[in-house]
Amino acid sequence: xxxxxxxxxxxxxxxxxxxxxxxxxxxxxxxxxxxxxxxxxxxxxxxxxxxxxxxxxxxxxxxxxxxxxxxxxxxxxxxxxxxxxxxxxxxxxxxxxxxxxxxxxxxxxxxxxxxxxxxxxxxxxxxxxxxxxxxxxxxxxxxxxxxxxxxxxxxxxxxxxxxxxxxxxxxxxxxxxxxxxxxxxxxxxxxxxxxxxxxxxxxxxxxxxxxxxxxxxxxxxxxxxxxxxxxxxxxxxxxxxxxxxxxxxxxxxxxxxxxxxx
Length: 262
Fold this sequence. Notes:
There is one protein chain. The chain is mainly β. Helix content is 13%, strand content 35%. The chain has helices spanning 36-46, 125-128, 153-158, 169-182, and strands at 6-17, 52-61, 67-75, 89-92, 95-98, 101-122, 140-141, 146-147, 199-203, 218-227, 238-246, 249-251. The strands form 3 sheets. Strands 1, 2, 3, 6, 9, 10, 11 and 12 form an 8-stranded antiparallel beta sheet that branches. The protein has a two-stranded antiparallel ribbon with strand order 4-5. The protein has a two-stranded antiparallel ribbon with strand order 7-8. It is globular. It starts with 5 loop residues before the first strand and ends in an 11-residue tail after the last strand.
């Protein structure tokens, strides 16, 4: 079977966004534009299955880049078995001070609007069974290129859909189109952090009238690309790339490109 990757387009917008720079630890400072990992998370919030992965290809900035700052009281303690009391005080230099509350400033974006393009990449079953840790591995007979029959009827019933030989990318494309067109999602998409919810709509470039991106070109420098979960699932290393916007358009290289810095 010949597999293909279909490209989809979403318009995403929200009143505020914060795509946090990892090198700044004390106070949050956002990148000037959405990161590929944040864009991928929006697509995955709408639709994701183990048989697919999303590859962001292009980001179009539709609104001018605007900044604002917010100062908030945040909890400075880490939750554990013992409860956290926000108003717990401690005497320091003869004065009572709150020890679990910290006041921090966040530099974030406001009134953001993006058009994001991404490919729904279908993973063939043979690729999914690679490695002993794969949940497909023990059923797949690589020598004879077929699935073995389990003696456990419960396993056969549960894994029936997962182990079908007739899987194809068309059904996953249709599932995403149906969900995105109805505004359905597994969890609410967000713009960098969960407190900044994102609105979205599916765009059909062939029939819809598309607004032009902003007429601005800028070099954003080195930006977070994504986390490399394939290398280490528990402690994935970060990947970076150099972001250049030309007339409001950012081309996102593929993961295996030489432009990705590891």
